[in-house]
Amino acid sequence: MTDQQRQTRVPMNTVPMTTGQAGVISTLATQLRVDSIRCSTQAASGHPTSSLSAADLMAVLLERHLRYDWDRPSLPNNDHLIFSKGHASPLLYSMYRAVGVVDEDELINTYRQFGSRLEGHPTPALPWVDVATGSLGQGLPDAVGVSLAGRYLDRLPYHTWVLCGDSELAEGSIWEALDKAAYYKLGNLTAVVDVNRLGQDGPTELQWDMDRYARRVEAFGAHALVIDGHDLAAIDEALTLARSDPDQPTVILAKTIKGKGVPELEDKNGWHGKALPPDMAERAVAGLGGPSSLQITTALPEPGTPAITPNPRAAVTLPRWEVGDKVATRAAFGAAVSALAARPEVVVLDGEVGNSTHAGEFKDAAPERYFEMFIAEQQLIASAVGLSVRGYIAFAASFAAFLISRPFDFIRMAGVSQASIRLVGTHAGVEIGQDGPSQMALEDIAAMRAVHTSTVLYPADAPATARLVQTMADTTGISYLRATRGTYPVIYGPDETFPLGGCKVHNAGPDDAVALIGAGVTLHECLTAADQLAKDGIKARVIDLYSIKPIDVDTLRRTCLETGGRIVVAEDHYPQGGIGSAVLEALASTNTPELHIALLAVKGLPTSGKPQELLDSAGISAPHIVAAARSLIGA
Fold first, then answer.
1. Same-domain status, 274 and 333
2. Residue 431 in contact with residue 484, Cβ under 8 Å?
């Protein structure tokens, strides 16, 4: 398909760019280049050449197409602008100066400085930034979530614009994003790709092979527009065409020159991520005509109100179970999140395993708020982040082994964004049985504990799961609930509460010789072990550590004092970074007596087998807990 054939859409009724407007945009583009050089040189740090190549693209977008009220960044109908190539922050911040929300002193003198909100890569410390970027391949996937909200939930005509770099098109997450954007007919999403040919360490894979880029984009169902990224009229036409089809996302492939506007740098390798030295910066700025103070006014969005109004006080009736019922905590999650459908702001995303995680039950309760991401775990998390930008309470569920491992960088960056998302990983640990080690999440607790703003929960029965799912809905940050595959007896009544940072203590008495700590499946093993020890005249209290982060330091310290420091921790997880590590870290921060602690965890590579066989083999079943307790007390 030729470039002429690709531009087959009929433009919307947009007034053509006049000669006067073209002059203003040209002046604006020059100012963006000058400011990008000035702030990065002053900081002696940054990515000016990556900013120079995209200056014309962003100047046209800012002056002619972006609809945004800069004084009211939370206005529901504002467009969204996401810099997926977050290293081009000098350009973004120069745009903020051009619209008057960042002044010259802040831009030139605080960029990349300690304490500045103009960080090296954009973060939501700035109210006009939706998500933190800088880990390439994430801005466009996040934008899919924002656009899903616009089309299916808010039902507002705002548009999501994403500036991408050509290097990040090597990331598989970009193609996951385009695939899902096409599947969901997100005509309200446009990616502008700055194809400047040069990456950090030489030419990119496709360099300026624009036709191959376009064929790839079209293969994933998006509309490709190939343009000269320095031709203002061509940019304007492409941005106009991008809004013309409500049912197909657009990718504008803009052929640009890295370092454009500075002849010493244009298309020169070796300048990525390097600020211009003062003498070169002075020549470059002079060659561009010197500093200027052009201030522009972008178009305001049309008035609009989201179709969905959040109702955190909506009546939610959680499911109830009787003590002794056998229920899988994954099934309890499905029932609980379906009950939360009473709140119109709750959304569920599935990774094509909703029939196993039970997330699919939400589809029956609120089909318009259920999104299938298929086996695309990076996009699963990114969509949740994007939906959170629009204020939705998004639960994303999949098997724990894949929910945490594949998209971990997206989870990490959600922490940098200080986003609030809810993750539910099922089928965790050796307890899953015959599927074998490739399916067993044995690292997820460690990974999630390490994430900024995270909450890590591991309920042992259905009522605990339901209560914690309800709590997650109103918990800021990134909350993770670990759920088991098998069915286990209900041990708590329906009115039991499970506050974050708490735990449940069973069988506590003044003569306890040892404490057994478990969570999830191992809590049941600890209870069985305590019963066996009691038959032998050994008193053991059991702690249900359902909240692993935050953790109940006070109860752990008190337990340590009351049992002579004798503690057995059993977990269906590798020992590094798991529950045992969390307990030791908690006790290390307090004045405790000498510890006599046994850490039982999965210390080898599991195999396939029946759940109880695998728990026994890993050394975390009740008999092993009994043996460890006896060893600690010398019995």
1. no
2. yes
Question: Do residue 217 and residue 331 come from a single domain?
Answer: no
Q: Catalytic site residue 352?
A: no
- Residues 188-240: pLDDT tens digits? 999 999 999 999 999 999 999 999 999 999 999 999 999 999 999 999 999 99
165 sits in which H/E element: strand 160-165
Q: What is the pLDDT of residues 68-97, one digit of tens each?
A: 999 999 999 999 999 999 999 999 999 999
Best CA proximity match to 162, nearest among 201, 199, 203, 129 = 129
CA Rg value for the chain? 28
Task: Tell whether 296 is covered by a domain.
Answer: no
Q: What is the DSSP string of 528-543?
A: HHHHHHHHTT--EEEE
Determine if the peptide bond prior to 550 is cis (ω within 30°). Answer: yes
Please tell me which residue in 176, 377, 431, 443 is annotated as part of the active site: 377
* End-to-end C-alpha distance for the chain, whole angstroms: 80
- Are 31 and 177 in the same domain? yes
Task: Look up tokens 């030295």; give the residue.
Answer: 277
Residues 279 and 391 both lie in one domain: no
Same-domain check for residues 347 and 441: yes
Closest to 240 measured CA to CA, from 457, 425, 30, 60:
60
Whether residue 464 is contained in a domain is answered as yes
**What CATH number corresponds to the domain at position 154?**
3.40.50.970
By residue range, what is the domain housing residue 615? 504-633
> Which pairs from 34-37 meet CB under 8 Å and 24+ separation?
34/285, 34/288, 34/289, 34/290, 34/291, 34/292, 35/90, 35/93, 35/94, 35/97, 35/107, 35/108, 35/291, 36/90, 36/91, 36/94, 37/90, 37/262, 37/276, 37/281, 37/284, 37/285, 37/288
Kindly state the tokens that stand for 207.
């360099």
Residue 59 lies in a domain: yes
Instruction: Report the Cα 102 to chain-centroid distance in Å.
Output: 27
Element at 181 (helix H, strand E): helix 172-183
Neighbours of 517 (CB within 10 A): 28
According to DSSP, residue 81 is labeled E
Residues 123, 417 contacting (CB under 8 angstroms): yes
Same domain as 114, residue 59: yes
How far out from the chain centre does Cα 10 lie? 36
Q: What is the pLDDT of residues 549-601, one digit of tens each?
A: 999 999 999 999 999 999 999 999 999 999 999 999 999 977 766 889 999 99
Q: Strands (DSSP E) along 351-392, which ranges?
A: 370-372
Q: CA-to-CA distance for 417 and 121, rounded, in angstroms?
A: 11
Q: Are 165 and 47 in contact (CB under 8 A)?
A: no
Instruction: Tell me whether residue 8 is in a domain.
Output: no
The region that residue 305 occupies, defined by phi over 0 for left and psi between -120 and 50 for alpha, beta otherwise, is beta
